Amino acid sequence: MRPPGRSSAIGAVSTVKPAPTAVPAARSAPAEGPLARWRPRAASATVWYLRLMALLNLVAVLAVPFRDQVQEHNEGDFFTPYLLTAGLTTVLLSLFLAVAMRRRKRAAWIFNAVVSGLFSVLYVLLMVVPGGAFADHPLNYVSTVLTVGFFLALLVGRREFTSKGDRSNPKTGVATFVGGLVVGGVVGAVLVQLTNTIHGAGFGVRFGYAVARMVTVTPSGRLADQIAVPTWVNAGINAMGAVLFLLVMYLAFRSPRGQELLSGEDERRLRELLDRQGERDSLGYFALRRDKAVIFSPSGKSAVAYRVLGGVSLASGDPIGDPEAWPGAIEAWLEEAREHAWVPAVMGASEEAGVIYARHGLDALELGDEAIVEIDEFSLDGRAMRVVRQAYNRVKRAGYTVRIRRHEAIPDGEMAELLDKADHWRDGQTERGFSMALGRLGDPDDGRCVMLECHDGDGELRALLSFVPWGANGLSLDLMRRDRDSENGLMEFMVIELLQRAPEVELERVSLNFAMFRSVFERGSRLGAGPVLRLWRSVLGFFSRWWQIESLYRANAKYRPIWEPRYLLFEKSSEIPRIGIASARAEGFITAPSLPALFRRRHTPLVPQGRSGGGAAAERNG
């Protein structure tokens, strides 16, 4: 069992630094070649160049005099550096490329190398043409030096850009770009036709004007004598171009979506690890969710379960298996994240695992505490348990009873009825759960799970609790469902029944709900709490009106449990908002609306053999 360590700071970032021995040998080995030490610098220089171009283009969009100068230098005998066009779309393009290059995306490097290489060759040829007018303008030399310098930096830093993208990215991006230009050009041509105050412009001229304006804020002045439209038309065409470039850049440089699910062989190997080391982590069994992928250590003695959402490789809980093999699994997971430019993060890691992750470069942020009840330490006696005892006795006098069975002991027909009840009692359409929910109920492979069925005095089923195994003698709460018209305190009654009848399932400990920011509520209510802590507690109390933050802490505190801290692990603080969005998507707090989701069954029907088709995430917290 993991050590019951405590954290003394709430929301504090861990100061544990990665140990030198944790760095993979392949990354710590000195690079070969005389340009090795310049590669990272050259790669960083390309990123800063793109950021500078984005800034200059933004200034050109907002400042009319500067925009006019840029456009003047892009016509006639002048030209500007690579990506300086005074266009809003170029602002977005430069920003997207800068972000992709900072993440060392190979696709972004190829795009910049090809385009800037063509511009470099063209600029050099224009400057060396005998008798040409381009060499007479000093600004052209500056543009040539900057463009060629950017291209050379790309060549020097080539080996730094190793992050893979989705194979469909180039085709999808090109198709979207061409299709978007055609659609935007046609729409823009129609708008110009309806609002143009100068007659005589043909469709080709209008179409070219619209396409040009989608790329830059102001097209060539040569069209001024043929097209004159209101400002809102130009702004609308510019906005279409901005949206198109946002979409193209997203599709062209997004990371692979990581849709690989848990295979049958992976699940078999995970179950073997859980049979040997499952008692270490109460969340270990949730690694068997089939919407997660898994990566094993080279020895096969440990594994990390994760899911990729929005370019974030989100692992959950502790690694599965032998702690001595955890570093191998963590290194393999981090290497895969670097290979695909995914942001690595871990939700709900224990303190023991957090220390190992910290040695591999991740920092820790305390999320809250998990409530664990040790059977031999639980009792309803004493003044502190008086309220719980009274509530338990009240429900019991009302005639409610609890039946406890392993899932494998429930006949298929009865299990199907339980699934129907669970679906009927579900609170809302949004499914929640990732790190602390199994995502299915009644699957034949989960026969060791425990079901609690609560019936009223008339024998009517009123509530369900389902627990997953936690080693040989522990259970971890997975699902809570009840009839909203049933007696208050029904869940507490069922939990206490389980604790008191623990010998029926050879039970020694139970993991209940997770309480976010538990220490804030506990310490913030004490005498002498500081103003910052009291303010933080008030803010959390305010948001508890919509999310079960304080209520979950209160609901678990009544059992007087052992509180085990759980952590969010990450590489960079700047990635926390992105990780937070991915976590909210994984847990079901952010969902994309769709008709199939509105009519989807919560649980899949039972199958007599094999495993069911999965389903959406289960609700650990009801």
From TrEMBL:
The keyword Heme does not apply. Residues 271-569 form the Phosphatidylglycerol lysyltransferase C-terminal domain. Keywords: Cell membrane, Membrane, Transmembrane, Transmembrane helix. The keyword Magnesium does not apply. The chain crosses the membrane at residues 47-66, 78-100, 107-129, 141-161, 173-194, 232-253. Residues 43-247 form the Lysyl-tRNA synthetase N-terminal transmembrane region domain. It comes from the Bacteria. This is Phosphatidylglycerol lysyltransferase domain-containing protein. It comes from Kitasatospora paranensis. The lineage of its organism: Bacteria, Bacillati, Actinomycetota, Actinomycetes, Kitasatosporales.
